Amino acid sequence: ISYCEHGIEFRDYGYGSGDTVGNTVTGNTVEYCYQGIRLWSTSEDCIMENTVSGNTVRHCGYYGEWDDEAAGIFLCADEGRNLYQNTVNGNTVYNCSNGIVLAAVNGGECYYNTASGNTVHDCYYTGISLYADNGGEITYNLVTGNQVYLCNGYGGATGIRLYAQYIDYDYGYISHNTVDGNTVYQCANGIGLDADDGSDLMSNTISNNTIYNGTYYGIYLYTENEGEITACAVQDNEVYGWEMGIYLEDLSGASIYNIDILDNVLYSGTTGNDYNIRADHCDQLIISGNDVAHGQYHGIYLLNSDSVLVQGKKARIGTPEQA
């Protein structure tokens, strides 16, 4: 399937049209489309328990320039509708604007979906994205076992990103999602949590990921313009080869607080990060049990941050055998 606006689309549209349930999209090659494969809920009903697996999607989202709203595989809950218990598994997506997107916009709800075992590479904006705006809610989704690499089309490009922002009349909300056991490498940024313009990210977990040899931030939590990131955990990740290994920053009246940074490994042999862990303007952090080595400047660096507990393993120069 090639050279279409949308390669394959399942959409529930119109009052009483019925749920879109139990469909399977597999074994397709989709290329040179705006959206490669799209599941889009805009009616009174739901898109649920569908499977998108074993497809190859490539070269989507480019019309003279990269479109940040396009994607290889795009699942969206729109206009107050529901998208839940869908599975995106074992697909190969590359050279797209965004690789795989789970979105909730205009009051839509996207929950209990899974993106697992996909290979995503060479995408301009993000490899895998969870996105919410204008009252949309992204909750209880799982991103696991994916391989994401070479997503570095511009400086803000990110391998896996959770992003909420204010659009039109309301904020985006992203909570209780898990990003676990993924491998992300050679991207501009590895895994990011990003809340803008009063939006909220709460109780999300970034765990057991291997994130290495990129440009700027291995894992980042960033908010501005009264956005809020709270009650999140960054734990048991291996992060090395970045300008900053784990970086937290809030700006312009925003808040990052009550964050646990636990039991991460921030080195590999002699390959470290310039700053292993850095937090700017953050409060109520627990930084505990992390194994930190080979930072060019700082092992752990805190700037204008309050009520922070740093405990556990020591920052050091050597490998474990040299400690």
How would you summarize the topology of this molecule?
Elements: E1 6-12, E2 20-21, E3 24-26, E4 29-31, E5 35-41, E6 46-48, E7 51-53, E8 56-58, E9 73-77, E10 82-84, E11 87-89, E12 92-94, E13 98-105, E14 109-111, E15 114-116, E16 119-121, E17 126-133, E18 137-139, E19 142-144, E20 147-149, E21 158-165, E22 173-175, E23 178-180, E24 183-185, E25 189-196, E26 200-202, E27 205-207, E28 210-212, E29 217-224, E30 228-230, E31 233-235, E32 238-240, E33 244-250, E34 255-262, E35 265-266, E36 275-280, E37 283-288, E38 291-293, E39 298-303, E40 309-311, E41 315-316
Helix fraction, binned, reads under 10%
Q: Classify the secondary structure makeup into a structural class.
A: mainly beta
Total strands: 41
Mean pLDDT: 88
Report the principal-axis shape: globular
Give the termini distance in whole angstroms: 56 Å
Low-confidence runs: 317-323
Biggest sheet features? 19 strands, parallel
User: How much strand content do the residues show?
Assistant: over 45%
Question: What would you report as the Rg, rounded to the nearest angstrom?
Answer: 19 Å
DSSP helical segment count? 0
